[in-house]
Design brief:
This protein is an alpha/beta fold and 298 residues long. The protein folds into 2 domains: 5-159, 3-Layer(aba) Sandwich (Oxidized Rhodanese, domain 1), CATH 3.40.250; 175-287, Oxidized Rhodanese, domain 1. Helix content is 28%, strand content 11%. It has helices spanning 8-17, 35-42, 77-86, 104-115, 127-133, 175-180, 195-199, 233-244, 263-271, 283-287; strands at 5-6, 21-25, 44-45, 49-50, 94-98, 121-124, 138-139, 188-191, 216-217, 252-255, 278-279. It has a 5-stranded parallel beta sheet with strand order 1-6-5-2-4. It has a 4-stranded parallel beta sheet with strand order 9-8-10-11, with helices on one face. The chain has a two-stranded antiparallel sheet with strand order 3-7. Helix 9 links the parallel strand 10 (252-255) and strand 11 (278-279).
Length: 298
């Protein structure tokens, strides 16, 4: 299995080689959704495709085929494949994803590409800041086309090439399965939210404060060093083994508020040699939407 990470130097070599590759800028700001597009327009890796959390990596509010619940429901694999085809991704390409937010939002696309069956997908370690610091080539301006004009699925979409889906390479856990396994040794829940949200002391986004019973807390920001790079594999392995305290890594299902910031923990466990692990994409926002489901605080 290839590393989930690619360094700036490795990406520069890849692009210079002429090998089939497509780069995606996934920058986003949760509390200012328009900011990611503005950041892209100001500067982005030359040739990068814009991938917006709301437009491309989440199901539309009116979608009837969403693959998960929560505040950022996954689109169906088929809808995602239509968008991937519209921006020209093909299975033989290496897909490289990056953002400016600590791999929070590009991690979502890394996971979705794996879920779609794409083999070669990597996260740019250090993100756009590292690329700029190295003097990597950048462009300015909004994308000429990012697929966002498509109302998928639609008649016009059938004129576009569709990415050929393959078997999912990472597991998506449904709410029912998570609920059935709650409290059993066959499932270990890891919550990526900040400690105060996990404990239920604050809740700025969802109607209930707290966490799923039995969940462990690993804020996604703990996977990065002070310069914004993922910590070494040995460090990540030691930290996750301490958190798991003897639990089997294969039982881990990650979640957060809406299935986005959980993914850096998935990537970190892959780097540490403790993956693959599962994702509950609906996460806390989906779980707490049903008042009959148990929750804990503290």
């Amino acid at each position: 299995m290839s590393s989930p990470l690619i360094s700036v130097a490795q990406l520069q070599t890849l692009l210079a080689s002429g090998a089939p590759c497509k780069v995606f800028d996934c920058s986003f700001e949760l509390m200012a959704p328009e900011a990611g597009d503005q950041q892209f327009a100001q500067a982005h890796i030359a040739g990068a495709v814009r991938a917006n959390l709301d437009r491309h990596l989440s199901a539309a509010k009116s979608a009837h085929d969403a693959a998960s619940g929560g505040r950022h429901p996954l689109p169906s694999r088929e809808t995602f494949a239509q968008w991937l085809g519209s921006v020209g991704l093909t299975p033989e390409m290496t897909a490289v994803v990056y953002d400016r937010q600590g791999a929070n939002y590009c991690g979502r696309m890394w996971w979705m590409l794996k879920w779609a069956g794409h083999e070669n997908v990597q996260v740019l370690d250090g993100g756009f800041r590292a690329w700029q610091a190295s003097g990597g080539a950048v462009s300015v301006g909004s994308p000429a086309f990012d697929g966002s004009g498509l109302d998928l699925p639609s008649a016009s979409a059938t004129l576009m090439p569709i990415y050929p889906l393959g078997p999912a390479r990472l597991a998506l856990a449904a709410t029912e399965k998570v609920a059935d396994n709650l409290g059993r040794p066959s499932q270990t829940l890891i919550d990526a939210r900040a400690p105060a949200r996990f404990r239920g002391e604050v809740e700025p986004l969802d109607p209930v404060a707290g966490h799923m019973p039995g969940a462990l807390n690993r804020p996604f920001t703990q996977n990065l060093d002070a310069q914004g790079f993922f910590k070494p594999a040995a460090t990540l392995r030691a930290e996750f083994e301490a958190l798991l305290a003897g639990r089997d890594p294969a039982t881990v299902v990650h979640h957060c508020g809406s299935g986005v910031s959980a993914v850096p923990n998935i990537i970190a466990m892959e780097i540490a040699g403790l993956g693959p692990t599962g994702l509950y994409a609906g996460s806390w926002s989906d779980w707490c939407s049903d008042p009959s489901r148990a929750f804990a605080q503290g």
